Amino acid sequence: MTVYFIGAGPGAADLITVRGARTLAACHVCLYAGSLVPRELLAECPPDARLIDTAQLNLDEITAETVRAHEEGHDVARLHSGDPSVFSAMAEQMRRLDAAGVPYEVVPGVPAFAAAAAALKRELTVPTVGQTVILTRVAHSATAMPEGEDLATLGRSGALIVLHLAARYADRVVDELLPHYGADCPAAVVAYASRPDELVIRGRLDEIAGKVKEAGVLRTAVIMVGRTLGAEQFRDSHLYSAERDRHVC
Q1: Does the keyword DNA repair apply (predicted)?
Q2: pLDDT more than 90, % of the chain
Q3: Model confidence pLDDT, tens digit, residues 98-131
């Protein structure tokens, strides 16, 4: 058997990849985060599949379920919201599976920041304005940030910053980024990206925290700060330029 870590996408059930849906349909055990993964996706599982909501399980209990399925000869779908390559706690699960001798594979999904960019109708990398995207979060009591990855340090780059798990800390985000980005820098918050209750908040950096509080957004949101969010006057890319020699590889 194999454990498949499947990116379920940012929220809308139809944003799971074709490979993810096919893999899900072939697994007779499915572990999913009930608070984040859309319930509609569970309809893709076989009718007799064992469905396990991991929202109230700890790492040992999750590992025990996968080992049990392995011993019974069942493939396992481990559904993670967004894409499992970022902020999914997949690494610690894979470490446990390595120790238990349980094989696994990863099926990528649509990440939350991509769904947020789609909601904003923005390309995050714009010629001559910004070509770098930083995916990060803020430190809190549960998990500290490694040295050199604090917002004050990352902000010196001036790159577009995308913050996960940070909506309740919007005031701190603004305070730490203002010296580097300026009060008028475009900022946005997208909550529940791609879902029916999707909420988009736009504003200047110096006002975005107040707008987030007013909207009551505390979780399941990404914060974006950077000049590409408001870029209008920029040079066209070389990719489709009429001056480009298309006979040169």
Answers
A1: no
A2: 84
A3: 999 999 999 999 999 999 999 999 999 999 999 9
Closest CA to 149 of 163, 132, 169, 130: 163
How far apart (Å, rounded) are the C-alpha atoms in residues 53 and 112? 21
Contact 162, 132 (CB under 8 A): no
Task: Give the pLDDT score at 121.
Answer: 97
Question: At CA 113, angle to CA 121 and CA 216, rounded to 5?
Answer: 90
- The SS3 assignment for 149 reads coil
What distance in Å separates the CA atoms of residue 1 and residue 156, rounded to the nearest whole number? 47
Q: Which residues in the chain are classed under CATH 3.30.950.10? A: 112-230
Q: Match 């025990």 to its residue by tokens.
A: 64
* pLDDT confidence of residue 40: 92
Residue that is written with structure tokens 């769904």 in the block: 115
User: What pTM, to 2 d.p., does this model score?
Assistant: 0.91
Span 24-70, pLDDT tens digits: 999 999 999 988 888 899 999 999 999 999 999 999 999 999 999 99
CATH fold of 112-230 reads: 3.30.950
CA pair distance 72, 54, nearest whole angstrom: 20
* CA distance linking residue 205 with residue 49, whole number of Å: 47
> Yes or no: is domain 3-107 CATH 3.40.1010.10?
yes
